[in-house]
Amino acid sequence: MKNLKRRLRIIKYTCLPLVGILLIGLVVIFAKPLWRHFVTYPKYQKQVEAFALRKKECPDVTGLKIYRGVLHLHSYWSHDSKGTIYDLVSAAKLRNINFMFLTDHPHGDRDTFPRGYRGIYDGVLVEPGSEKQGFDAWPLKDSTIVDWKVDKDTVARNLVKNGGMVFYAHTEEPHNWSNEWFQGMEIYNFHSNVLEKTSTLPILTDFLINGYKYRAWAYRGIFDRQTKILARWDSLNTHRKIVGFSAVDEHENVNFRARYLKDGRVQWMGVNTKPMGVMKVSFWNRWMFHEPDQSGWIFRWMLVNTYETSFNNSVNYVFADSLTVPNISHHLILGHHFTAFKFLADATGFCYFGEGKDGKMLGMMGDSIRLADIGKLKAISPFPGRFTLIRDGKTVEVTAGDGFQYAFEKSLTKGAYRLEVEVKPGDEWQPWIYTNPIYLY
Ligand SMILES: [Zn+2]
Fold first, then answer.
1. How far is the CA of 189 from the centre of ligand 1 (A)?
2. Share of the chain above pLDDT 90, in %
């Protein structure tokens, strides 16, 4: 009896405080994501839905069509992705994406093209490319071999000389910025944005609580304006043309999945597509699995990143004549595009352009216009926004307010002029659009 009492006392004084500390810890860790789940994110969601109703039709000023596309993403061809064409195309259809320029990691030093997925799948244009050594490279041609053992500058030159497209990937990292063969650079990369966070715990807890219902907002919670990268872009554009685009860098690989092996057992796969073990199907675990889906999975717990969320996040809106690889890549290299965070508002209809003194359209984002000819820099937007004009990295003018239009005509001098547009679906202005510059010379 005495012994039992002593034991209970030990439990009381050691275990209970530990349980208490654990509970307090859990409350501290999950209080914010839970608050977001029940209060903040439903509010944001309603605000964005109400904001969508304010959409205005925009006049066509370019004579070109608009195609929405994602660049820098991975499929099964990469060692760290299992994405199939079903996963990619169903996500693209759901999010109104017209083209995907893949950048799968090569299998060796000799990288042959075409490889992986290529063509038009259910109306979605897919073109293979490569991500290696800080490159986003698309040869855009049949029977190409890229030799990654050759020095980087030569790889870039050879690719571009043969009609390919070469952009800087992961621009938070060091590069040889003076290599003029690089035609463009990432001005936003979701993955780079995550990497700059000092702690991943708040991100993980947010996705654990909000990953299903409010994944778009959990994504947005990670967003930071990429100030250093934008400054680099502006500084490069003062002496050379380099187009800016957004990279989704999507692998759809921070999740847990399972599939059948040939012998009927189940193989588990974790983060970064790492195999996690094999188990037999039994009475005890059968309930967890469904019939294999189109990609063969019998269990999917998509914890953080999915194609469909990325395809509604940073999207490139390209002005082009037709949905073909030569035409889309041609306009990408010219800079006839802008990036928009699509889940805030679909930016189709937006345009930024230069008008002559006689009111004639002289060129659009990515184009060069003679200073002697320019009358106004203008933008039209399907949604009201706040427009910030930036010349060679310095803010020239901010028009605050509720405008669907923007015009700048005062004191235009030589330089690269780009526009950032924010929208205000709720209480705060949110970065929404980054355009390529118009070069006045
Ligand atoms: Zn990547």
1. 9
2. 82
The structure tokens 């006689």 sit at: 358
Co-location of 247 and 260 in the same domain: no
Closest CA to 202 of 222, 216, 183, 182: 222
CA of 73 to the centre of ligand 1 (A): 6
- At 429 the pLDDT is 95
**pLDDT (tens digit, 9 = 90+) per residue, 271-286?**
999 999 999 999 999 9
Distance 233 CA to ligand 1 centre (A): 20
Q: Are residues 218 and 274 in the same domain?
A: no
Q: Is residue 261 part of a domain?
A: yes
Determine the 3-state secondary structure of 291 from DSSP. Answer: coil
CA of 363 to the centre of ligand 1 (A): 33
Give buried/exposed letters for 85-110 (b at 16+ CB in 10 A, else e): bebbbbbbeebebbbbbbbbebeeee
Domains identified in the chain, total number: 2
* Distance of CA 132 from the midpoint of ligand 1 (Å): 9
Q: For residue 242, how far is its CA from the centre of ligand 1 (angstroms)? A: 20
Backbone φ and ψ for 407, nearest 5 degrees, come out as -140, 135
Q: Is residue 268 pLDDT above 90, yes or no?
A: yes
Q: Give distance in angstroms: CA of 332 to centre of ligand 1.
A: 19
Centre of ligand 1 to C-alpha 191, Å, is: 8
Is 383 among the domain residues?
no
Find the mean pLDDT for residues 160-175. 96
Is the same domain home to 128 and 193? yes
pLDDT, mean over the chain: 93
What spacing in Å lies between the alpha carbon of 186 and ligand 1's midpoint?
11
Ligand 1 centroid to 131 CA: how many Å? Answer: 6
Side chain identity at residue 136, one-letter code: D
User: 402: helix, coil or strand?
Assistant: strand
The CA 250 to ligand 1 mean position distance, Å, reads 7
Same-domain check for residues 208 and 108: yes
Distance 237 CA to ligand 1 centre (A): 24
116/244 same-domain check: yes
Domain annotation covers residue 103:
yes
Grade residue 248 by pLDDT with cuts at 50, 70 and 90: very high
CA of 103 to the centre of ligand 1 (A): 7
Range of the structural domain that residue 182 is part of: 65-251+306-310
Locus of tokens 């390919």: 164
Task: Provide mean pLDDT across the span 70-97.
Answer: 96
Do 96 and 220 fall into the same domain?
yes
Rounded Cα gap, residues 353 and 349, in angstroms: 13
Q: Are 101 and 138 in contact (CB under 8 A)?
A: yes
- 140 CA to middle of ligand 1, Å? 18
pLDDT recorded at residue 379: 96
